[in-house]
């Protein structure tokens, strides 16, 4: 059952971002399992980082408001370019992100490694066609560092310009419905 969910998660990412590298699929899996708790220091820092990022990106009404990255629990990547186009208040986004990061989503390392090993077996196959030797080298490298959070690959950043926040879907829906009730 979980293998099918992992495969579907990878396929959705491939469909959205076909030039994704091993590092990008790892980041997706890491986020789907661990949420965004690794990103948070405090609310003011969270809001400050968001304000800075929002000032540097273009609004895009054509991208989806969020991409579903659910695996263990309902979780989404909220697209900041769309939030900017929809004029969603930065405090609302930051509060949803901050509240979501408080949820203990840490998955045991052995379980995550099992998921990663399954994903790796799929990523060397069609349609992903990730180079097996490069994938093995990447996995060895991240295992050496304890399977940490990583950034997107340079290729992914150049092509897709990712600007999002990982937020539990329930929290996002609750915060965004409050935002629109107050308009």
The largest β sheet comes out as: 3 strands, antiparallel
- N to C succession of SSEs: HHHEEHHHHHEH
Give the termini distance in whole angstroms: 42 Å
Helicity level: 55-70%
- Side by side, the strands of the main sheet go 1-2-3
Give the tally of structural domains.
1
Radius of gyration: 16 Å
Count the DSSP helices: 9
Search tags:
globular, 9 helices, 3 strands, three-stranded antiparallel sheet, 183 residues, 7% strand, mainly alpha
If you had to describe this structure to a student in words, what would you say it looks like?
Helix 2 runs antiparallel to helix 6 and helix 5 (90-101) runs antiparallel to helix 9 (169-181). The protein is globular and about 45 Å long. Strand 1 (66-68) and strand 2 (75-79) form a beta hairpin. By secondary structure, the chain is mainly α. It has one domain. It has helices spanning 2-16, 22-34, 43-55, 80-85, 90-101, 109-123, 132-144, 154-160, 169-181; strands at 66-68, 75-79, 164-168.
């Amino acid at each position: 059952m979980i293998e099918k969910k992992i495969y579907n998660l990878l396929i959705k990412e491939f469909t959205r971002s076909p030039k994704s590298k091993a590092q990008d699929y790892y980041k997706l899996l890491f986020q789907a399992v661990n949420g965004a708790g690794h990103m948070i220091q405090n609310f003011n820092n969270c809001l400050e980082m968001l304000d800075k990022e929002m000032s540097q990106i273009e609004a895009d009404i054509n991208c989806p408001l969020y991409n579903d990255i659910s695996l263990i629990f309902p979780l989404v990547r909220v697209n900041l370019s769309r939030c900017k186009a929809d004029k969603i208040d930065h405090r609302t986004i930051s509060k949803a992100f901050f509240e979501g990061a408080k949820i203990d989503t840490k998955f045991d390392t052995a379980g995550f490694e099992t998921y990663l090993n399954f994903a790796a077996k799929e990523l060397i196959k069609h349609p992903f066609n990730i180079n097996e030797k490069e994938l093995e080298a990447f996995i060895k490298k991240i295992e050496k560092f304890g399977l940490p959070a990583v950034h997107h690959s340079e290729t992914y950043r150049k092509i897709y310009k990712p600007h999002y926040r990982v937020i539990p879907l329930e929290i996002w829906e609750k915060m965004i419905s409050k935002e629109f009730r107050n308009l």
